Amino acid sequence: MIRIVLAEDMHMVRGALIALLTLEGDIHVVADVDRGEDIIPAVAEHRPDVAVIDIDMPGIDGLTAAAGIHEQFPSCGTLIVTTFGQPGNLRRALESRVSGFLMKHSPPSELADAIRAVARGEVVIDPQLAMDAWSARTNPLTPREVEVLRLAAQGADSREIAPKLYLSVGTVRNYLTAIVSKLGARNRVDAIRLAQEQGWL
């Protein structure tokens, strides 16, 4: 029996996935969570074979949680299941050492097969997305610039970002200016749009 922890913040989607996976005789959902910060504690408590994780979770995002699982519980495979198929997300996922990356529009049978493959220690990646990622533009932003832009994308201004990252307001403004320049964007809003389209946030 393959034991899985399921992390999905949309209640209806999570319920549907649990119902679908329950139909598989060799897969058992031992826990399900709807917040990113609950993923690693659930893995610690239930010690599943595979954690099935959405990227866009409240609190800690799914890729950060996947990286934590890899560090703390290397025997647990991680399968990202997402609607966000940008090549940048796949690159971030591979950097987080995930075991698989699957789009939510895939047939249910593909999800079950991907879980089985990850449980066997295999790597599963949507082939079209892998080709797109191979030819995609590399993220020109530094990790700190990504942090700044991610907070800006959440609606924070320079004065709100500064204390969160232990920076001065002037330094945050300098980061935002550099980000706009690096991305060839017209302004901060355009930079956020470009970075989101590439999956860098």
From TrEMBL:
Coiled coil: none annotated. The lineage of its organism: Bacteria, Bacillati, Actinomycetota, Actinomycetes, Kitasatosporales. Residues 3-119 form the Response regulatory domain. Transmembrane segments: none annotated. This is Transcriptional regulatory protein DesR. Residues 134-199 form the HTH luxR-type domain. The keyword Phosphoprotein applies. SUPFAM superfamilies: C-terminal effector domain of the bipartite response regulators, CheY-like. It comes from Streptomyces smaragdinus. Keywords: DNA-binding, Phosphoprotein. CDD domains: LuxR_C_like. GO terms for biological process: phosphorelay signal transduction system; regulation of DNA-templated transcription. InterPro entries: CheY-like_superfamily, Sig_transdc_resp-reg_C-effctor, Sig_transdc_resp-reg_receiver, Tscrpt_reg_LuxR_C, WalR-like.
